Amino acid sequence: MARKIIIDTDPGQDDAVAILLALASPELDVLGITCVAGNVPLALTSRNARVVCELAGRTEVPIFAGCDRPLERKLVTAEYVHGKTGLDGIALPEPEMALQERHAVDFLIETLRSEPAGSVTLCPLGPLTNIATALQRAPDIAARISEIVLMGGAYFEVGNTTPAAEFNIHVDPQAAEIVFRSGVPLVVMPLDVTHKALTTRARVEAFRNLGTPVGHAVASWTDFFERFDMAKYGSEGAPLHDPCVIAYLLKPDLFTGRHINVEIETTSELTMGMTVADWWRVTDRAPNAMFMGDVDAAGFYALLTERLARL
């Protein structure tokens, strides 16, 4: 039986690859895609999600626009990484499929209340504003969520947006705090993992050599956004952050980590949005997250290429 998931996202080239991986995998039943402001503003993230579903030929997947700003802070975006549309790199047609009329938060609450308890996994790939808003408005849903598998945070890799904070958590630290304190089982894919899943020329060309519209799009997207990270980190390629979330659902043994306590910094401007991960278990704070530390990068890219070939 396919695992029911909701993807909460701010596409983003790496978000787009994660959505494609999910849509290509029969083990996963994508109940809907909820969009949030993050990499680019909400109007573009909700456009980009539809572009990706049309590219995959999956126009039946419902897409919902959600929160257009963080809970308490001004929106910070990342056009400098993802380009002005968020999906720069290849020209794709404007989407024809419609956005759903319901707000993403309403969809999250109603779906979690109507599906059997413990049957839906949430997969946030961007700032956690939609998820936190749903938990605040409907505290009863926390007990109904199977688990939340998210991309965000960092510990050994520290920050990619400030010296201390990773982008998704930095954009809405207050939302992240609500999610990390919700009691819902959490699996976290931090930069510590995603920076070990770097594109290489061979890996990008493997996407291109699929010879399909999806393969060309993924190769073009990775070509575009890897330039930024290669210049910044001096690395051979760029991390494909968000597909790690979907890969974990498909092949959890690709990843290793520790069940530890993770707190979110929300008071210090210096370290705002830092994920304070008790990796060495030096406090007596109760563990609240499976915080991943390593990935089998070759296995990850093999899975990604094999699945994308199906679209």
From TrEMBL:
Database matches in PANTHER family: INOSINE-URIDINE PREFERRING NUCLEOSIDE HYDROLASE, URIDINE NUCLEOSIDASE
Organism: Thioclava marina
Sample GO molecular function, one term: hydrolase activity
Pfam entry (one): IU_nuc_hydro
Swiss-Prot/TrEMBL keywords: Glycosidase, Hydrolase
Protein name, as recorded: Nucleoside hydrolase
Statement: the UniProt record of this protein carries the keyword Transmembrane: no
Domain of life of the source: Bacteria
